[in-house]
Amino acid sequence: MDKAKIFPIIFLVIILALFGVAFKFYSDNNALTAEKKKLVTEVGDLGRERDALRDKTSKLERESQSYEEKIQAVSAQLDSITKERDEWKKKSDDMSRDRDALVEKLKEKQKVETVQVVQPAMQQSMPTTPASEEYWADFVKMKAALEIKVEDLNKQLAEAKMKLAEFDKNNKELTIKIDEVTKERDRVEKDMQIKERTMNIMSRDLVSEREARKIAMEELAKLRNENMGYKRELVMLNKEKVTLQGNMKDVVEKRDTLEHKISGVENVMKGKSLELEELQKELRTTIKGDAGVTTRETTSVELPPIVVKSGSGAKGLRGEVLAVNPEERFIVVNLGEASGVGPGNQLKVLRKNKEIGSVEIIETRKDISAADIKNVVPGIDIQEGDIVVTQ
Fold first, then answer.
1. Nearest Cα to 390, choosing from 336, 348, 342, 335?
2. How far apart (Å, rounded) are the C-alpha atoms in residues 229 and 32?
3. Rounded (10°) CA dihedral 18, 19, 22, 23
4. Helix (H), strand (E) at residue 239
5. Closest CA to 325 of 280, 286, 366
6. What is the pTM for the complete model shown?
7. Spatial CA neighbour of 19 closest among 230, 234, 229
8. What does the alpha-carbon distance between residue 192 and residue 63 come to, in Å, rounded to a whole number?
9. What is the mean pLDDT, run by run of 10 residues, along the chain of 391 residues?
C-alpha cells in the first residue's frame, strides 16, 4: 500500500479512538452526575424521614410520660380514697359496736323496769318511802338520758351509714375510673409496644439505608476516582494527539520531500531506462551486424582479431546488476563512465559475498554499462540485485 495513503488512515484511526474515549468519558460523566443528583435527593428524603421519626418519637415519649403521670395521680388518689374508706369503715364498725352495746344495755334496762313494775304491783299495800321515790326519779332521768343517747347514736349511725353509702358510691366510681384508667394504661402500653416495634423496624430500615448510602458514597468515590483517571487519560491522549499531530506534520513534510525525491528518481530511472533500451538496441544491432558480416565474409575476407583494450578504471568498485538478458547473455550494471569503468573491464559477480561468475564491460554510458557474461557457476543464473565488483 502507498505510504501516502497509510498515514491519513492511521491519523483517522487515532482521531476516531480519541473521539471514542471522549464520548465514553462524556457519557460516564453524565451518568455520574445523574447518580450524584439521585443520591443527593435520597439523602434529603432520608433526612426528612429521620426528622419526622424523631418528632414522632418525641411526641410518643411525651404522651407516655403524660399517661404515666396520670396513672400515678390516679393511683395516689385511689390510695387516698382507699385509706379514707378504711377509716370510715373502721369508724362505722366502732359505731356499730357502740350501738350494739347500747342496745344490750337498753334490753337490760327494760328487763329491770319490767321487774320493777311487777314489784310495785305486788307491794301496793306497802307504804311509799322517800328512798323509793328518789330511786324512781333517778331511774326516769337515767332512762331519758339513755333514750337521748340512743337517739344520738341512731342519728350518728344513720349519718355514718349515709357517709358509708357515699363512700361506697365514690368507691364504685373510683373503681370504674380505675378500670377505665387501667384499660387506658393497657391501651397506651399496647400503643407504646406497637410504636416501639415500629421504631425498631424504622431504626433497622434507617441503618440499612445508611449502609446503602455508605455503599453508594463509596461507589461514588470510586466513580470519581475513575473519572479523574479518565480525565488524566484524556489529558495524556490530548498530549499524545498534539505530539502525533506534530509527528504527522513532520511525516507529511518528509512524505512530500520523499515524493519529490521519488519523482526525481523516477525521472532519472526513466532516463536510464531509455538509455538502457537504446543500449540494448545498439547491442542487438551490433551483435547481429557482427554475426552477419562474419557469415557473409568468412569465405573471402579474413579480418584481424578484434582486440579490446581493457580500461584503466579503478579496482574494487562495487555495483549492482540492473537487468539480465539471458538470451543474448549480457547484463546491465549501474557502473558507467562516471564511475571510471570502460570497455574491457572485468567484473566479478557476487551473491551473499560468494563469487558466482564473471563479466566483461563491452559498452558504457554515463551511469550504466553493458557487460558480456563470461562464465557462471553451474546451476546458478545471474539475477537482478546481484553485486558486481571491478577486478
1. 348
2. 14
3. -150
4. helix 130-297
5. 280
6. 0.28
7. 234
8. 10
9. 67 82 83 82 81 79 77 75 77 76 72 54 46 70 81 80 80 81 83 81 79 85 84 83 80 72 64 74 69 40 36 72 90 91 93 94 90 93 94 82
